[in-house]
């Protein structure tokens, strides 16, 4: 059992509705009453995010989550395929396990997979990923007065806005949570 005062971002717990990961934690104490704990949590199976409220002193069941390493091999229409590097067995997961971020997976890279028992719940994708620019337009003279952007297509097919100084072949860092440009990699 896990005390609700110990719930912090990244902590996992389970209840009758499923296995949850804490996204945000807020502790509120009003006057002489009991403290309330408000947590925004994400359901591993459905991907939905809700807010739960607990009173101080309550307990929740701790989820037995383990991290396993998996090398990303490829993806097809419905699945993403990984390989276990210890026994070289391949296994496929539904694209929903990646939470819509499967486009940021790079072939050959090793990722942490969060699993409960023998069921993989999610793929831990880094916040910043480095991707090569496949195609972009040219900069227009006179557009350098303000922070003007242009369209770019990355090697994974993602279309984003980048600054004018980015060229084809440049490697850039992308925020995997928002899909936005962060910086150019030198």
UniProtKB/TrEMBL annotation:
Listed GO CC annotations: cytosol
Family matches, as InterPro entries: Elong-fact-P_C, NA-bd_OB-fold, Rib_uL2_dom2, Transl_elong_fac_P/YeiP, Transl_elong_KOW-like, Transl_elong_P/YeiP_cen, Transl_elong_P/YeiP_CS, Transl_elongation_fac_P
Protein's pathway: Protein biosynthesis; polypeptide chain elongation
UniProt feature coiled coil, ranges: none
Family, similarity comment: Belongs to the elongation factor P family.
Function text: Involved in peptide bond synthesis. Stimulates efficient translation and peptide-bond synthesis on native or reconstituted 70S ribosomes in vitro. Probably functions indirectly by altering the affinity of the ribosome for aminoacyl-tRNA, thus increasing their reactivity as acceptors for peptidyl transferase.
Name the record gives this protein: Elongation factor P
Native species: Candidatus Woykebacteria bacterium RBG_16_43_9
């Amino acid at each position: 059992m896990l005390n609700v005062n110990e719930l912090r971002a990244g902590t996992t717990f389970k209840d009758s509705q499923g296995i949850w990961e804490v996204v945000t934690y807020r502790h509120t104490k009003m006057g002489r009453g009991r403290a309330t704990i408000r947590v925004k949590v994400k359901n591993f199976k459905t991907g939905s995010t809700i807010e739960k409220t607990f009173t101080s002193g309550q307990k929740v069941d701790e989820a037995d989550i383990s991290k396993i390493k998996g090398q990303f091999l490829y993806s097809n229409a419905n699945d993403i395929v990984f390989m276990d590097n210890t026994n070289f067995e391949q296994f496929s997961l539904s694209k929903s396990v990646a939470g819509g971020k499967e486009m940021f997976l790079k072939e050959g890279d090793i990722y942490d997979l969060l699993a409960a028992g023998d069921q993989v719940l999610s793929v831990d994708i880094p916040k910043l990923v480095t991707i090569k620019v496949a195609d972009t337009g040219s900069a227009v003279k006179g557009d350098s007065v303000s922070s003007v952007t242009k369209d770019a297509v990355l090697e994974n097919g993602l279309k984003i806005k980048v600054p004018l100084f980015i060229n084809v072949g440049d490697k850039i860092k992308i925020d995997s949570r928002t899909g936005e440009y962060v910086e150019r990699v030198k």
